[in-house]
Amino acid sequence: EDKVVQSPLSLVVHEGDTVTLNCSYEVTNFRSLLWYKQEKKAPTFLFMLTSSGIEKKSGRLSSILDKKELSSILNITATQTGDSAIYLCAVDTGGFKTIFGAGTRLFVKA
Amino acid sequence: GAVVSQHPSWVICKSGTSVKIECRSLDFQATTMFWYRQFPKQSLMLMATSNEGSKATYEQGVEKDKFLINHASLTLSTLTVTSAHPEDSSFYICSARAALTGGRKNEQFFGPGTRLTVL
Fold first, then answer.
1. What is the model's pLDDT at position B94?
2. What is the pLDDT of residues B28-47, one digit of tens each?
3. Among the listed residues A83, A106, A91, the one whose alpha carbon sits nearest the alpha carbon of residue A26
4. Distance between CA atoms of residues A67 and A110, nearest Å
5. What pairing do the DSSP bridges indicate for beta strands A19-26 and A3-7?
6. What is the pLDDT of residues A51-105, one digit of tens each?
7. Is the minimum CB–CB distance between B70 and chain A shorter than 8 Å?
8. Are A52 and A32 in contact, with CB atoms under 8 Å apart?
9. Among all residues of chain B, which has the CA nearest to that of A89?
């Protein structure tokens, strides 16, 4: 059975801290791994990763995929209160299925 | 963990026909279900929010007569795309919010999505 597991489930940090969110997967077919930030209406797309070892960056956020370990991490440096959200990891298995993880709830204290 | 399923996984239909997509919470009761549409570049758009036993709340720009949502029970919501056209071809994802999950109250769980192709 295809599954995506995220850890930790929740995290509380102080502004300025650096956080690392983890995502591991077990899927029959892998096409890409996606990271989303969910605050209100709909998850906002952050990154799509297809190749191992290539870091993707957007401001203070970065992510990397390790296909050998079947995992990915999302790093957020110098966290701000506006980073408080649920971060979702999903794996596109190609064709007709995207498997979402349960998410990591991040709370950044001022 | 909580599981949300969608059926069918994929569907191909002719233009003008209607298609029904089911979203089920398999091991928990979902007071609220959400329907999203995935666009190119992986962005998700919230289409509507449905609460069990009441009418769905549609987002601005989403035609409620075209995308009929029914949330008849605490474990089932359906999205019917009426008179589908090729521009409705997309990936439709549902998520369900649990009524109570102990330490993770009100958490959302996502279904695997349904790929709709309208010819």
1. 95
2. 888 899 999 988 777 888 99
3. A91
4. 36
5. antiparallel
6. 999 999 999 999 999 999 999 999 999 999 999 999 999 998 876 678 899 899 9
7. no
8. no
9. B110
Cis amide bond preceding B8, omega within 30: yes
Q: What is the average pLDDT value for chain A, to the nearest integer?
A: 93
User: Left if phi > 0, otherwise alpha if psi is -120 to 50, otherwise beta: which for B78?
Assistant: beta
B72, containing H or E segment: strand B67-73
Q: Which positions ≥6 away from A54 have C-beta within 8 Å?
A: A64, A65
Residue with tokens 């991490």: A73
Q: How far apart are CA B30 and CA B77, in angstroms?
A: 9
Name the burial class of residue A51, with classes exposed (0-12), middle (13-18) and buried (19+) by CB atoms within 10 angstroms of its CB.
Answer: exposed
What's the pLDDT band for A43 if we cut at 50, 70, 90?
A: confident
**Euclidean distance between the first and the last CA atom of chain B, given in angstroms as a whole number:** 37
Contact A96 B109 (CB under 8 A): no
Structure tokens at A89: 């990891």
Residues of chain B with Cβ-Cβ distance to A95 below 8 Å are 10, 115
Residue B44's pLDDT is 86
pLDDT at residue B28, as a whole number:
85
Sign of torsion, CA B6 A10 A80 A18? negative
Predicted confidence at residue B102, as pLDDT, reads 56
Say whether residue B1 is in contact with chain A using an 8 A CB cutoff: yes
